[in-house]
Specification:
By secondary structure, the protein is an all-alpha fold. It has helices at about 1-30, 35-55, 55-80, 85-90, 95-120, 130-135, 140-150, 150-175.
């Protein structure tokens, strides 16, 4: 029974990973920005499912809420507000982009292969072993690290977000006046 469950997990993992890669490729190859944003949503959902399979429930739901929800809606609103014209899609001046993209892809692939070959398991164990995570919970572990060890960077990030929100409100008020 346990091996059957493990096999189902692997099948779901590989199917979701394949769909994630396929939707990411479709996202970057679409000429219509709205279609690209929709493929981005599919990619984010697939990554969220992969996080769930790997046992990171908090990260999975944060991925779905923050990225698939808020960020993609922001992208769609920006696309709708700037009114991309059909001519803007065809106004590409740099024709060597595909050649550069091909070589960058080859370099990144070779880096992934090199990292996979040199990967070593069995490094130094941290305080969050799988047993500790199972007893304490994923969310509690993330909260402990986030509000303990990384409290100062978390507060700086929240202040920067607050400044950005206040700045956006001020700019929006000026445009109305």
């Amino acid at each position: 029974m346990r091996t059957a469950m493990l096999a189902v997990k692997w099948i779901i993992f590989f199917a979701t990973a394949f769909l994630s890669i396929l939707s990411a490729l479709l996202m970057v190859t679409r000429r219509n920005a709205i279609h690209s944003a929709l493929w981005l949503v599919v990619t984010f959902f697939c990554v969220g499912i992969i996080y769930l399979i790997l046992g990171a429930q908090f990260i999975a739901f944060a991925q779905l809420i923050v990225y698939a929800g808020a960020i993609v809606m922001l992208i769609v609103f920006v696309i709708m507000l700037i009114h991309l014209e059909k001519e803007a899609y065809h106004a590409r001046k740099f024709t060597g982009g595909k050649i550069v993209a091909f070589f960058v892809t080859i370099i990144l692939f070779l880096e992934i292969v090199a990292a996979s070959i040199s990967f070593q398991t069995g490094g130094q164990k941290g305080i969050y072993t799988p047993e500790a995570l199972a007893s304490a919970g994923n969310v509690q572990s993330v909260g402990t690290v986030l509000y303990g060890q990384y409290l100062f960077p978390f507060e700086i990030a929240s202040i920067l977000l607050l400044i950005g929100i206040v700045g956006a409100v001020i700019l929006a008020k000026r445009r109305k006046d």
